[in-house]
Amino acid sequence: MSEEVSAARRREVRERAGKQCEYCFMPDSEPLFPHEPDHIIALKHGGKTVSNNLAYACFECNRAKGSDIASLDPATGGLTPLYNPRTQQWTEHFRLNGPIIEPITPEGRVTVALLRLNQAARVAIRDNLMREGRYPHPTRNGGNRQDKDG
Predict the structure, then answer these.
(1) pLDDT by residue (tens digit) across 54-72?
(2) Cα distances (Å, whole numbers) of residue 60 to 49, 91, 95, 147, 148
């Protein structure tokens, strides 16, 4: 398959994600910059442009993640893979404490740190959306988005 994500594939990824970022759950109706498909395993690491390697990511998460697939765990210093929305369940790695995304596993810790999920401005936006009832809860609409196809 081509490295370019087709319009049809973009729609598929968006719909599968419930129109929200699969890392921070920001609805795609909120930010200034559009959400985009993220190669979970970057092309430069041998990832493919197929459904089970694409996550729907907000601009902030996608830019912070870049082509990274792992990082150093802030608690242990060990190299740890990032959370993978295609093969892992969000609620097994994170929990919400108000607008704060708390990591509960090593994968959660590296993902929160690398993607800067609790940066002050992002927390403030989540807090406002929560108070207005416009922030989707991660346990609804699939905190686990495992795919069976490529």
Answers:
(1) 999 999 999 999 999 999 9
(2) 21, 21, 19, 24, 28
